[in-house]
Each structure stands twice: as C-alpha cells, then as structure tokens.
Queue: 2 jobs
Job 1
Amino acid sequence: MDFFLHDDPRLPSAWAPWFSHEYITYFSAQTIAGLMALPQVPVKPNPHIGHQIWPVGPNHVDLYKENYREVRKLDPLWSFSYSERNGEFSSEPPLDKTIEPWKVLVIYSTELDLNPDSDLYLHKNQKITGGSHGWRHMQFRLLGRTFGIAPESFRLLMNFAQMALESGNDYWGWRYLSRAAHYLADLGNPFHVKALPGRLLFKYMFSSRKLVPIVSSVHQGYEVYVERRFREGFPPFREALLLGAGEGQAAKSSVSELLGSYMRQVEKRHNEIFYFFLDQFGGELINVFQKMDLESHLDAAEQTNMCSADAARVIFNKSNASALGFLDGITAEILFDVGRMMGTLFDQFSSAKNRKV
Ligand SMILES: [Zn+2]
C-alpha cells in the first residue's frame, strides 16, 4: 500500500485539501493493523466529557465531516486555511452514518487548530504563546519559567477518549483520541517546545517589535515547508512516519512515560533549524511577517496563517532548492520520533478495543 493520503481512494475529495496533522496521523495509523481493521462505528452526539475542567472556545462548532457535500476544488499547494475544504459539512451529527475509527483519527486531527482552544482566558501569561490556543498547544521554558500546558492537554484528551470508549460512545472516543494525537504531534515540533535560541533572547530582550516577526517567520516558515513536502508526496517523510509508528507499536511502552524524553529530544534540534532559517532566508522571510499586528484581536496563529502563501514563495524559490536538503534530513528524523509516539498511542487504544470485541 503506497498511498500518500491525497491519492487514497478510500477518502472522498470533499475532505481535501489535507494538512500536516492529517498526513502525520494518516501515515502513523496505516502501520497499526489492529487499528485499520476495526469495524465502522456509528456517529453519535458529543458527550461533552470534561467540559467543566476543559472549556471549549466560545466560537467553536463541532462539524461532522461524515455528512459532506463537495462544492469546490481548491489547489492544495496554495491552501492554508484549515476551515476551507472542498466540501461543506454538517453541524448536526448524522446519526444514520458510520465511519472507520482510523478515518475519524485522520479527519479530525486539524480541528484543534481552529476554534476549540481559541478565545479563552486560561492564564495571565498566555499572551507570550499568542493566546489560549498556543497555551494549550505548546510548552517551553524561558528565563526560568514554564509557559504553556501542551503535555497536560494531551493527557486530559487521552483520558476523555478512554472515558468515551468505556461509556460506549466509540465515535467520540476516537474523535477525542484524534485531538490527543494532535497535541502529541505538536509536542514533537521544535517550535512548540522551545521559543527561541537563548542568544537571540538576550539580543532583543527589550524589543518585542523586532523579535515577534523573527520568531513567527521561523516557526511558521517551518510549518509551511513541512506541509508543502507532504503535499508533494515526499517519500522520506512517509517512510519516517511508517517506520517510527511500526517501532512504537512493537515497543508496547507507555506514551506518558516517553513524553518527557520525546520533548527534550526535539528541543535539541530547535537551534539548528532556527539558525538555518535565519541564515538562508533572513530578511526576506521576516519581511513577510512584518504585516502581523501585535495589538490585533486575532489569534496569533490566525495572523501568521495569513502570511503563509508569501512565506511559501520565499522558501520554495528555485534558488533555495539545494539548501532545503538540510531541512529534509532533520525533519525526517523528527517525524520518525513523532511516528513512534503516535504508533505507541494508537496501538495502545486499538489493542484495548480488540481485547473487548
Ligand atoms: Zn496545534
């Protein structure tokens, strides 16, 4: 089986274009035979598990992609908004429909980068992560303090998934697990576990006007690069995830126990990637992100997304093609580690399910 997600005939094109989280989840899932073989589950209404301790952003609406109507054909290479797909989806659960658990894991893996974590007040320091969304999706140390709660986000959603499965709402069990896997993948991204190299912090300590476009351009530039490679069907990324997930499945270890070393491992790769972006694309890329308005009411992630197309033009300019080899190599190593964690997680849940059925 040699699909790259966007060419998989089991998935309707109404769900495309596809984004990095979906590719990561898709390749990791393909390796887990016990997950791929699980029978379809009926769509059910949201049981709102844990909504008191884990509020959902006020502007979020659960969309049910099982009920779709294809209305357009977007160009995947130039699509940067998670909410714009080829299809339109229902906000009511289509209770007559069923779906395979692995598909639930894939198609809901970008949901968390829309509204569920945005527009909340979670902590007085959340501005440094760009708002409540970043607060739940990152965790890094800066000047002796810790910012963001992504490991906690992951553990909670994993528990919600377990509770939903135990209560008989398998559909939402897998959908919560998809959200947990999103946080887990974020924790394997260098820019979610470290904000900036120490040297840079001291240089720009008193000038956030200068610092924000630099940090944003490198972080978002890296995301744009990874996503483009997935959409091109870049074999090394696929191989890395398949291999990693296979190893995770075989190891039968506990994701929670591996979490700390997983984060430390990718944190070590941060500076290299950061300085590569500064040296290779420098001013040209930073200029793209000068458009960001620090005082805007918009979520930081939403603002950086608006700069993605221009960032892609800089990074994938022909003159940079040979330099990208460095990023290709280090990213394949990163994705192997991400795949291993995802494989461990998916195997844990599908094995438990298979013991029961
Ligand atoms: Zn995220």
Job 2
Amino acid sequence: MINRRSFLKAGAAAGTLAALTDPLSGTAHAAAGLRAAGDVPWLRTLRRIGQTNITEHDPAVMDVEGWANYWARVKAGAVFVSVTGILACYPTTVPFHRKGKYLGDRDFFGELNAAARKRGMRTIARMSPDLNWGDALAAHPEWFMRDEQGQALETPDTPELFQTCMFTGYMTDYMPAIMREINTRYDVDGFYMNGWPMFNLPVCYCAICRKLPPAKTPAYWEKFNDRVMELWKLYDGIAKEKNAEAFYFANMGGGIHATPNLAQVGAVAQWFQADNQGRGGQGEPVWGCTQQGRVCRAIMDGKMAANVTGSWSTGPLRWRESFKSPAEVRMWLNETAASGMVPYYHVIGAEAGMGEDQRWEKFGEEYFGWTAKHDTHFKNKRTMANIGVVIGQRTNLFYQAPNDMTMQRNMDGLYSALLEGRFFFDFVHEDRLELERLTKYAALILPNIALLSDEQCAQLRAYVEQGGSLLATFETSMYSNQNHRRGDIGLADVLGIHAAGPVIGRRGNSNPFYARIERQHPIVQGFTDTNWLPGAEYRLPVAAVENPVLTVVPGFVAYPPELSYPPVRQTTEPAVVLREQGRSRTAYFPGNIEHSLWIGGNTDLSHLLQNTIRWVAGDGAPVRIEGDGLIEAFAWETEPGFAVHVLNYTNPNTHRGWLREFYPIGEQRVRLQLPAGRTVQRVALLRAEKEIPFRASGDVVEFAIPSVEDYEVAALTAS
Ligand SMILES: [Zn+2]
C-alpha cells in the first residue's frame, strides 16, 4: 500500500507538464530568478530562499563557487550571507567585532556576496546582535544583560560569550556601525538580524532595565514593543541609506509564541522571517508549520513571509550538522507552501554542506526543483475561509493558567478539531479586530482568549451586532489587556452569561465534570445512547440560563471505584450557553474544552467542538472536501485562479515526530464556491502532474483528487 514513488521520478515527468509551467517564472529563472516584471516589487517574486549558515571554520573549508552554484541550481531567489556581530566574516574595522580565527586576511563575506550576486541571486546580510565577548564586556559593561546580583549573563553553550541587552547602546551604536560598514563596501538587498528579539521576554537587571516596569507584565511588554519598533525603524533607515529598495528585518521566532506585538511588526515589516525550523520528538503535532503560516497571514496582509525549514536534526537534541528524516523535511516544506509562506531551506556550515553529511543537498534540489515548475500557482491573493480563529498574544504571554494548562496545547486542541472537521479558517490577531477585517468570516472562535481590552470587547460586540457569530471558551475576556481580572466576563452581554465564581478544577485525579444532555440540538447531533458527555478539566462556573442544552454534573472521585459515582446527578449550571439573534449565533463553553481534548484525546470533545463550530458558522463554507483521512487543507484565490492544497497527515507520526514515510489516502472530493462571475478553464494536480476533469455549475466547481501521498495542489486556472 505504501507508495514509495521517488520525488525525482515526479520531476522527470515534467515533460508532460509544459503547459502548466508558468512562462513568466520560466523566463525569469533562466536569469536565476529575480528580475520582476513591470512594477512588481522584487520581494514579491521570491519563491525559494537558501541559507548555508556560516560557521567560524567555513573560511578554511568552504568551496565558495560550489556554494553559489548549489543555490543557483535550486533556483533560490535570495540567499543569506553572514556578516554577523559575534564573529566578523569580513575585514571589519568596527571595535569589538572580533574576526573569526580562520578568516585570516580574507573577505569571506565579500566573496560569498559577489558569487551569489554574479549568479543573479539577491543577498541578505545576516547579523547576530545578541552576544559578544569578554573584551567588549570589559570595555562596555553597560552593553550587557545582568542578573539580579548584577552579574553579566553568559550563554549556556559558550560561557565566553555574554548576552547583550536590547535597551543599550549596543543596539544603537555597535550594530549600526556594522551595517554602515557593510553599506559602504558592498551591495546587499537587505539586512537581517538573527537572535533578536528574544524568543522569551527578556529578564534583565542592567541599569536601564531596572528603570523599566517589572519583567513579564503587560506594562513591560509595551516598553519592549516600543523599543522593538524604535530599533526596527532605525535599522530600516540605515539599510536605505545606500539603496532605497533595501530594508531591514528580524527573527520573529516561531508559532503563536512570538514576543513582539505581531500586529505592530506586520505594519512595518516587508519580510516576516519565521524561525520555526522543525519539530522534535516530544509530542509536537506535525502542523506547527501551518500554524506559523496562519500567523503570518494574519498580520502581513499578503506581504512576504518565509519560514525556515532546518534540514538539520531539529528537536530537543539538536544535531546541527546531521540531516533529518526526508519525509519530515518534505512535510515541513509542504506546509510552508500550503499555508502561503515562501519555502526557505537551511543548512548549517560547510562541513555539513560539502563534507560529512551531504544528504540534504539532493533533497533540496528535488524539492525546490518541483516548486520552481509551478511558481505561478503559489502566488496567492487571499484565502477562501469562512471562520476566523483569534490569536491572543497577551494571553500567551501573561495569562496565569491553572496548573499545567498551556496556550499552545489549547490551540492544538482546537486545531485538531478544526482539521478533523475539515474547516477552512484563518487566524485573526487580537489587535486586528476592525469590523472591515472581520466581515469575511461567518464566525470567530475565541479559544480562551482570556485577556481582551474593553475596546476589543467592543469590536467583537459590533461584529456580533452586524450578524457575526462567536464561539468562546473558558476564561475568554475574563481579564483586561493589562491582565486585571474583571468582576464579570467582558463579553457577558454578547454571550448571554455571567461568571458565578472562581475557576473550579478537580481534586487529585478525580473525574473532571460531565456535561448532561438536556435537550436535542445540532451541537449534540450524533450522540446517541448517552445522556452524558465529558465536560472539561476546568470550568468557570456561570449563572443558570433558560432551557440549557448541556448542564454541569460536578466531578467526583475516580479512585477507589467504590466511590466513583456522582453524588449530584443534575444541576442547573450550564455546560454550554447558546444564543441566536438574527443571523448571529453565539456559543460559550465554560470548560477549557479544547485543552482537555488535547491532553485527554477524548473523541466526544472533538465531535462536540466540530458540531458547535458547524452550528455557529452555518452552511456557507466556500470550500468542502470529502474523503477519508486526516488532512489539513487550504484554499487560495491565486493570480491565475484558485488553488486547493491538501496535506495528508494520515500517519502514525502525526503527533510525535518525525514522519518516516507517507501513507497515501484515496479520493478527495472537492466542491468550491467561486466568487460571482469567475469561470474555471482547467484543473491540474501539481504533484501528480496531470490535468483532471471537473464539473462547473453556476459558481460551483467540483472535482476529485484521486489520491494524495503527502501533498497535493489542485491548481485552477480561471478567468
Ligand atoms: Zn538590560
């Protein structure tokens, strides 16, 4: 059953595909892929990014021409070339910019930069502003982060390197000096900083930071964000001093956890660089990369976003120069492309690249070779989704969740239900709730978005008053944006509820609460032969409502079984509150239902969530896909028409890395509701590399994808 069809073979079938190849990108790539036609900014033409992350040793061992040939051969539109800040890769004159010990008199950066540019690739100057050495610490003690006792903070792997503080002159004197030195000597297209902003909010006791609000509070976060924006604008200005088209960007971290306010970043960034390189072995689901893509989409308004895929062995044990499972790398790149980001392939050091482990190299050629044939169908205009899932950065950063509850697990629980239900959804940032952004969605989901300002609550209220629907859970809006607990839920009037006491958990390992079915309703459809469903691990008790669909049966002893029975069999406390007003429907679960789904795996909870999402969102989904298997799907309006991306997660390693191989699924029947007036001429499968028949009737197009190995893109050419 397992299809081991090699990737190469798919590439060899390209002859049959001439008609599907984008003529524009074909020509462009003859000149190595970069010159944009007409007024299209060059950034918008990038479809592949390459990076060999330069080590100190590379000047001694790296074949510069071989490096440039490789990235040109895979049609990378841009490569990252290290300038650094920790170790200079060129003959710098900036004080404390220490030269690497294998650099000698060479201008290694200059050689790499020239070799890439000669081949028509754009170059990004990569810098590291986060660490410096003891001589800098001695001369500029004020540049460095301090612990509470005033000691400079070392970096764990390398105690000779110390962590610099972003609030100091290191960022306004030292880093600008390096940027200006690069600008005077070389041509580059952009400046990128790795290792900043930090992935966790910094905790520093230097002289400047002691005057800031306490670490890990919303008040500190505002100062942190102000500094990020101030530096971003400073560096962007320096980048443009030589070349008005050049720009600056920084490492935005991974997933839903970024530290800077992403809505603010999205307003200034031309390139969102996500550093979400892969997953490890500790129960991380495979969809970490698509979540990243959805985050980018929420804040970049279609501007350039890339996610780094590490070819190296990611996870809790990091073998930086060993290739990981090719199936895992392939799926991560698939997810990058499907979710609308630009694939970015990363290898560390020439010793991996051109020496001891060369497995990454052929893989990169095959994967990028395939995408290069189909560039035009990855040029997305907008998503076709009717559900918005609100992401709450303040909740992720500041909410004091009960016990071991985490917002990542909360999101993964909801995400798993959304995938099992095959819903089409976008992420929506909490600071982008303006009505004009929301009208696209029939429903918004608030997965325990605990911190919401009065203004954000008002925006959600306005959305509901306009006919929008909401699904909210647990402590959504129980706290202000400053993390102050409210007397009642901020959205109490919208959801028709009132908080009736503190959060209730369970004692020891007792049964969590149950939800008793009081009457029939679409959200309990399919539950037969039972009056009871699982509730959740925690709940925020809310006041009784009229005619509830589910009520709370309080938790009770689990062990010993002699005592495992409910002392109270029925209450009037609601386990869900449903409301219908005109077109608008709201549903509120007082339990942390999605988190309980994720940690417990209970299928009833997924079924209940899916039913409820379907009920609030109504019947108007623009895309439907029927068939077997666990998939994640995206539907895009593209430059040539439309594209439906299907990722096949039907795999024993979906919830624990890495994928070993793929298990193909059978026919997936797609039904697409086109915007009025659009007509489809052709449907082609980009992985299978063939055209398929379709049926059009009015604005509806239907077709079947016969099977999906790991990934398929149905590309619709439309007028
Ligand atoms: Zn500091």
